[in-house]
Design goal:
The complex is a heterodimer of chains A (291) and B (308).
Chain A lengths: L1 H32 L6 H19 L3 H24 L6 H23 L14 E4 L2 E4 H23 L1 H11 L1 H6 L4 H23 L11 H14 L4 H18 L8 H15 L14
Antiparallel strand pairs in A: 1-2
Helix pairs in contact in A: 1-5, 1-8, 1-9, 1-10, 2-3, 2-4, 2-8, 2-9, 3-8, 5-6, 6-8, 9-10, 9-11, 10-11
Chain B lengths: L1 H19 L2 H26 L7 H18 L4 H23 L4 H21 L1 H4 L5 E2 L10 H23 L2 H11 L1 H6 L4 H27 L1 E2 L6 H14 L6 H16 L3 H18 L3 H17 L1
Antiparallel strand pairs in B: 1-2
Helix pairs in contact in B: 2-7, 2-10, 2-11, 2-12, 3-4, 3-5, 3-10, 4-10, 7-10, 8-10, 11-12, 11-14
């Protein structure tokens, strides 16, 4: 039992790490721009496809392909901010509806370009097993957890001590005040979108080799990432990290007690219950503009 | 008076379609009607009240599965099953809506999305009752409406009923309260409106209409499959409402016709069609927030002004 539990906790930490990457990007964009981008999941999916493309067509090096994917999607994210979300600023309903349009367009674009069947990213790290006590995990599992931990640490350092990070935080706290002290607020919007999208791309590129790459691969991580954000408290960066991990581990552990078919529902049920009991989430941030 | 005559002529023409149309066109028309019915429900919520539900089609699924179970396993007749199923989706809408409506703006959207996915998961996985992913087979068509032509009349009648309900609601005091809630909830509260009750009521009504559409859809397809009630279908419902024109009486009809019929004639591959609709949805939010109905009304006004 203890071994089974540990196995599910590690599995959960792996899927949870993926949710953290998605949640971190969404929370960054939400914090700075007050935009809830439901299309974040399809950007994650594009990360998987582009990683496959770069790996097979351009370079044989997985790490390089991941970096190229992140750079490419950062550009896509910046373009979406300029073209779609900035003109709709202040109109939450239309922003959400536009992001639904982006889901439809990009998901089916992937079907049109790459076909409906799943692609496989061949990476040696998925086949090499690492022994942890009596349990064995693919190296890719630990790679995902490790990379996410590093990204989270880098993100905290960046937001806390770098000049751009400080400017991002200032913009998220008070747009007008930030403008008064000379922060280029519009550029911060683009930066948050590019950075958030790059994080989603990283998630897709990391998960791609483990599960296949297919047009709907981003749907579940997007919804779970959202659940993680709400759990942690909307707009809170540490909340997104803790919330994403909790959702991942809880749904993995739940498979020990419940049929695996219901693991998705477990995440949503936790989210709704927590929201009913603690509407501001675990970290209790009062989001900007919220009553 | 002029308007009434035009409306009567339109309805008569719609009922006369089977005499002229090929079976293929008729099939497309049936699907347009079946898309329009839940869209009317969503229009009342999204267009008139400002409640963006991202799980709307899951309530169509509740109606569909309740009716399927009643007809196949409980051997009930079509009409009583229809009535119970619509009531059941309305009740589910009231209960789930009451929970969702404790949240505001994007929290509301996320919670409706989560409930939609949970309901889908139940449809997909509760094998004993819903028959799981393969779908619930053997659903009969309504007695007397088994052929394509007659089923078209049933679907059309259902859609017209939905539009009549929408018209009645929008023109009532309740409808004016909904509009007030969309425009300024605090002001409406100050005026003594029971916002929670009214929003729950419109959520229930919208869900009941979705249920009606769901029952007719599975009766047409003769199978209830979870694939008909996915998140993508809920997004499509939002698309139909927004493209048609949220908060306009004819919006859902225009949206459903455009969504179902136009691509069939353009004959493009399904995925490119959805790419185009996705882009269209983005463009509409950017440049024509009142949708197709708004564009038509604007065009009509210009023509009228010029002819004067």
């Amino acid at each position: 039992m203890a071994a089974a539990l540990l196995e599910q906790v590690i599995n959960g930490a792996m899927t949870g790490s993926v949710y953290v990457l998605v949640a971190l990007g969404m929370v960054l964009i939400y914090g700075v721009m007050h935009v809830l981008n439901f299309a974040h999941g399809v950007l994650f999916m594009l990360g998987g496809y582009l990683c496959h493309f770069f790996l097979t067509r351009l370079t044989g090096n997985y790490a390089l392909a991941v970096l190229l994917t992140m750079a490419a999607l950062a550009v896509v994210g910046a373009m979406l901010e300029r073209g779609v979300f900035r003109p709709l600023q202040g109109n939450l309903r239309n922003q959400v509806i536009a992001s639904l349009g982006l889901i439809l367009a990009l998901e089916n674009l992937a079907v049109a370009l790459w076909g409906p069947n799943a692609l496989q990213i061949k990476v040696p790290a998925t086949e090499r097993l690492v022994a942890l006590g009596e349990l064995r995990f693919p190296l890719q599992h630990l790679l995902i957890i490790g990379v996410t931990a590093a990204v989270v640490a880098a993100m905290f350092v960046f937001l806390k001590w770098s000049k751009v990070g400080t400017a991002l935080r200032a913009t998220s706290q008070d747009r007008n005040a930030a403008r008064v002290v000379g922060i280029p607020v519009e550029r911060m919007d683009v930066a948050s979108f590019a950075l958030g999208t790059a994080l989603a791309a990283l998630g897709g590129a990391l998960v791609g080799p483990l599960f296949l790459v297919f047009p709907q691969m981003g749907d579940a991580p997007m919804v779970k990432g959202l659940a993680g954000i709400l759990l942690g408290g909307m707009g809170s960066v540490p909340g997104a990290v803790v919330g994403g991990l909790i959702i991942g581990i809880a749904e993995s552990v739940s498979t020990l007690f419940l049929p695996t078919d219901y693991r998705d529902s477990v995440a949503f049920a936790i989210m709704v219950l927590i929201l009913l009991a603690r509407p501001r989430g675990l970290f209790g941030v009062r989001a900007r503009g919220e009553p | 008076m002029k308007r009434l005559v035009a409306l009567a002529a339109l309805v008569a023409a719609l009922y006369a379609v089977p005499a002229l149309a090929t079976p293929y066109l008729l099939h497309v028309m049936v699907l347009s009607c079946l898309y329009a019915i839940p869209a009317v429900g969503l229009n009342l919520m999204l267009g008139y009240t400002g409640l963006v539900s991202l799980g709307h089609i899951a309530f169509a699924g509740i109606g569909a599965y309740v009716a399927a179970w009643l007809m196949v396993d409980a051997r009930l007749g079509f009409w009583s099953a229809l009535a119970i199923a619509v009531a059941a989706s309305g009740l589910a809408g009231a209960l789930i809506g009451a929970i969702c409506l404790r949240f505001r703006s994007h929290f509301f959207m996320i919670v409706t999305l989560a409930f939609g996915l949970m309901l889908y998961s139940v449809m997909n996985n509760w094998d004993d009752v819903t028959r799981g992913a393969a779908g619930f087979p053997g659903i009969p068509r309504a007695p007397g409406f088994t052929t394509l032509e007659s089923f078209y009349r049933l679907a059309l009648s259902g859609a017209l009923l939905a539009f009549a309900i929408q018209w009645r609601v929008v023109r009532s005091d309740f409808g004016r309260i909904l509009l007030a809630l969309r425009q300024d909830e605090r002001l409406a509260l100050a005026k003594g409106v029971n916002a929670a009750l009214c929003k729950t009521a419109v959520f229930a009504l919208g869900s009941a209409l979705a249920g009606l559409g769901g029952v007719l859809l599975v009766s047409f397809l003769r199978v209830a499959a979870p694939a008909s009630f996915t998140l993508a279908e809920s997004i499509n419902a939002v698309l139909v409402v927004i493209v048609g024109g949220a908060g306009s009486l004819a919006g859902p009809a225009l949206g459903a016709l455009l969504f179902v019929a136009l691509p069939e004639y353009l004959r493009v591959a399904a995925e490119w069609r959805l790419v185009a609709f996705g882009v269209l949805l983005v463009l509409i939010t950017l440049f024509a927030p009142r949708g197709l109905a708004g564009l038509i009304a604007e065009g009509w006004r210009r023509v009228a002004r010029r002819s004067q």
